[in-house]
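Shipment paperwork, digital attachment
Item: protein structure file
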Amino acid sequence: MSIDMRIALGVLIATAATDAAYVMFTSAVVAKRPMQAANWSGIWYMLSSFAVISYTNNWMYVFFAVIGSWIGAYLTLKYLRHEPTNPPGPLKPTA
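Attachment content:
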């Protein structure tokens, strides 16, 4: 099996962007922002389709997907520095 480096790079970039979108989606869900969550969800699935279509024909592209996924999640969390706008209040003791 041969690897086309252009496709491998595309898979790596697509999965990095996919994981970045997933992190942003999760952040929007936690912040209870339905419009942002829906938008990030659509972007997430659109990006993931390229990687899935690419590596279903050659299992070796999965390695590039794994590396891209790691990069996307790591960089997004490293540089996503905002605090939630509506943090939950402290829990009240029950009597």
